[in-house]
Write a structure and sequence with these properties.
There is one protein chain. The chain is of the alpha/beta class. It has two domains: 160 residues, no CATH class; 206 residues, no CATH class. It is 39% helix and 17% strand. Helix 7 packs parallel to helix 13, helix 11 crosses helix 14 and helix 13 packs parallel to helix 15.
Amino acid sequence: MKSESQALTFPCIRVSQPIGDFYVGSVKAKDLCEITTYDFRRLVKEVGFASYLGIQRRVDPSRVQEITKYVTTRDACFPTAVILSVPGECATFDNATNRLTLSAHVDEDPKRSIAFDKIATVLDGQHRLAALKEGKYKGDFEINVSVFIDIDIADQAYVFSTVNLAQTKVKKSLVYDLFDLAKKRSPQKTCHNIAVALDRESDSPFFQKIKRLGTATEGRFNETITQATFVESLMPYISEDPVLDRDAYLNDRMPRLADQKTVNRLIFRNMFLEERDLSITDVVWNYFDAVRTVWPSAWKATGRGMMLNRTNGFRALMRFLRPCYLHLTSPGEIPKREAFQTIFAKAGMLDEGFTTEVYKPGTGGESRLYHALLDATNVQE
């Protein structure tokens, strides 16, 4: 808690590791936001020379916005510690009570004084704190912290680089695969279930083509796209805000059905809200079964240089799905494979034309194939 003398006191335990001692405790988000500052890496120009100071990367506004939305959800959680560096003159640890007090420091030399809002420098967790400073979280959100006292700038930089480089980034496909364990509905879980169903059925156009965990599956040799690619291409047709939709279901709230204007963009939105996941699966199945029928060699190919069944080709086809679907029918209906097949047959494209030489890797190649399909089939965007 904070007192009138601008001090923050909270229970801690001392942890001893090779780098030295530090303190682990829990602080209310509001109080933590009041004492923290950031030491961004920046170029400082002085007379005759220029140098780089600071260790932190700049805050990414889009990342902050994403976390700000997340902290309002029912199951928001930050299980890993925010790491802080605090000058020795601002910190006092009471061994008898295991409580750490952080306070402002006043010095005769104003340059050596440390204001209350600059007591702690964030070594890791600045995006979480920036989001929490928006103040939209629910209740008394507590944050676990690791506090280093009087750690020099070299060790601060070492801690920052170790935390951000030594840990392995979790693959998105694994994240989506874990939605299989969720008890409540969500756009993420539905898209995962559809990916699994299409990958599992032996007569599906995606049979054993999807890397469930983002890497090659042992014993398989025909996988060409990741689960993350599949899910992130399908989900925009179901939800504009999957995080908020998931939170609504967690709180037993039913999102409203989409109006005509919205459902023309989110073609599977109302199917999802009506729990017609099998209908969505059927549409995707029939659509790509038509692709497989019209371009069998290109869809089956696993060698280098072919792209129709790989990330770029798949994403272009998923972009084309919406205008193609609306060209044939209204949202909620399930066109047959033959209907989609008729559209693709108009394109007059040959299997051997779907190469990375024609459609270069990256978004440029994806966009080129998408617009080529629109032009060749006379389907309106």
